[in-house]
Amino acid sequence: MYKYFLMFMLFSVSASAAVTNSYIGKVAGLRIEGTSALITLSSYLEDAEPRCNRVWLDVATNDADKAAYSTFLMAFTADKTVYIRAIKAGNRRYGACDFYDVYIPRQ
Fold first, then answer.
1. Cis ω on the peptide bond leading into residue 105 (within 30° of 0)?
2. For residue range 77-95, what is the model confidence (pLDDT) as tens digits?
3. Which of 7, 34, 70, 86 has a CB 3.0–4.6 Å from the CB of 97, allowing a cystine?
4. DSSP readout, 13-82?
5. Do residues 26 and 40 touch, judged by C-beta distance below 8 A?
6. What residues pair up with 69 in beta bridges, in sequence order?
7. pTM for this structure?
8. Residues 7 and 75: beta-carbon distance below 8 Å
9. Contact 32/13 with Cβ under 8 angstroms?
């Protein structure tokens, strides 16, 4: 039992270590470039290397990214504050960080 718990904790820690700290701010712009959606932020992600102020979503094949784009579109039109995380070592598209998750609190 403990062996499985220890393995779960090991994989959880290693997976979360690749995610940047949360960006907190506004969505500055939205753009569709081919099969990618680019979300421009009002400032840079805290610890992404190299630094970036955009995240990308695969809106052609990934249903979760399509839903995330809709969420970003709502946040942009309603001028909501968003909390975004990106994958540190993820693939870059057009200089944008690889999107991980988004959270929009009630204001």
1. no
2. 999 999 988 887 777 888 8
3. 86
4. HHHHTTBPPPEEEEEEEEEEETTEEEEEESS--SS-SS--SEEEEETTT-HHHHHHHHHHHHHHHHT-EE
5. no
6. none
7. 0.74
8. no
9. no
